[in-house]
Amino acid sequence: MTATVHLLHARPEPIGSFLRVGHTGYRELESLIAGSRLRFRRFVFDAAYIEGQRDLLGTLRRSGCEILLDPNLAETATPGRFDSSVSALPWGNPDRPWEANDYGRSRNHATAQSIAEFALKHGVDAVLGPAHWIEVIPSP
After folding, report:
1. How many domains does the chain have?
2. What is the largest CA-CA distance in the chain?
3. 64-79: average pLDDT
4. Does 57 map to a domain?
């Protein structure tokens, strides 16, 4: 007895995979691209390190890859992740991580505008945005 398979819907598109370009190891990516051995077509770049990766960014853009920008917003507001690379971003604070009371109406607009200008300058296709704010609830 043989089974007959009836497809009710077209085969779904595969889920897109993204490769995060780290602040180290991106030279290996360049060599994989040069050898035509890299199969990814979507890449996420950290804003804090994108300046030093301009050659790779340009190569990927010219080959038609999709480029996303991670503006490192979590790092700008997290004491353990805040460092000189994120503090130097146009929306970063040079002195300390951002705190909840730093985000007023005018500050949020300036942050969004700075990120948008940065994204345009680097020719990215999309920007990862924060989905929510997590507040620390004080202990009783």
Report:
1. 1
2. 74
3. 89
4. yes
